[in-house]
Each structure stands twice: as structure tokens, then as C-alpha cells.
Amino acid sequence: MRRSVFSLLALCAMTAAAAAPDTCSYCARTPAAAAAAADTARGGSLLTRYDRRVHRYRLRWQSLIPTQSVIQYAGNMGLLSFGVGWDYGRRKQWETHLLLGFLPRYGSSRAKTTMTLKENFIPWSLYLGRGWAVEPLSVGLYLNTVFGPEFWSRQPARYPDSYYPFLSTKVRVNVFVGQRLELTLPHNRRKFVKGITAFYELSTCDLYLRALVQDSHVRLTDIFGLSLGLKFQVF
Prior knowledge:
This protein is 23% helix and 37% strand. It has 235 residues and is an alpha+beta fold. The longest helix is centred in the N-terminal third of the chain and has 18 residues, at 2-19.
């Protein structure tokens, strides 16, 4: 009788084992669940297609947050200009700056406001040690406009035809070349910024280049202006 009971229990156990799905001996999960658990352990969470789409959406919006603050003196964009910037690229060698400038009244009837959209390219940076680095070359171009009725995008009728061909007084196209000196702050000394960069630029605009070509009395040194600036790397 006792042998029959043991035989019946053994038969029931074998039947239950055959009916149960294949499981992982380590985590007592099915192979699919074990793979999902391993994927979760590696990535921190199991991302669905929806999750990945939301992640990309948030990253695109986060890329609009400025990473820099900029102050620039002169440069055909006003006496002083203030703005924000973004850096990007594999080595952060590209920068885009958007600045608002102030132009004093001088001999005109009123002071004026300027706006500048600037694109910078820094090919390389040389590390000097202790957080210091020099950027021996920076180049770029920028578009500048002055707000006010005195400046026009189309040539007024008071000028002869083609007096200002392809040019206007509303928008100036500028090019520049310069150099930079950068200080990256240690982690324990960072409060508001990550680093500070001092720079200078030699710039000229389309009107000056036109004068250089058309007027033999204009020299190359006459068309370039010096500007100074500070860039604060926020993060």
C-alpha cells in the first residue's frame, strides 16, 4: 500500500513537471522573462518603442537650452552685446550665438538696438595644464541688423538705380578671425559656470569689402575692426 502511494506521488510530480513551462534555474522565470530581466538590468529599464520616441522628443527639446552666456564689445554689432549660445559637434567645435546689442546715440537722434546671429568654428584646442587651454584659431560669420526706420532692406527711390547693388543697410554680413584663452574651473569651485573664455576677433563686413574693391584708397587695414569678449560656459 505504501509503495502504491509513493508511486502515485512520483507520477503526479512527473506530470506537473511536464506541464510546467521551461524556466530559468537562476531566476525562476521563463526564458523570455529572463531575457527581459537581463535587458532591464543592463539598461536600467525596459524601453518600449513609445518610451524611445518620448526619450528622443525630450532630447530634442533639451538641445534648445543655451549652454553659454556671451558678452562682446564692438565688432560691428553695437558698443556692447549680450546673448546666449549653444555648442555642439563631436568636440564641441561649433557654436551658435544670439546677441542683442546697444548702439549709443552719438551724432544721431536716438540710441539703437541691434541683433546678431553668429556662427563660430574652433578647429582645435591646445591644453596647457591646470585647467588652462588656448584656442589658436576661431573663424566664423554673423548676420547683424539694426532696428529703426533709418535702415532699409530695399534701396529707396532717392538713390540712383543699382547704387547699392545686392546690399542693404538693414542687414550686414560679417566675417571674422580670432583667438581664445579658456579656463575650466575645478569641480569644487563651480557655482554658476563651468568655464570662462576670453577672446578677441578681427572682423569686417560686406560694405567694407565692397569699398576695398571699388576704392583704391581703401587699404586692407582700414576695413578690419577689433572686438573683445567673454564667454561663460554654463554646462
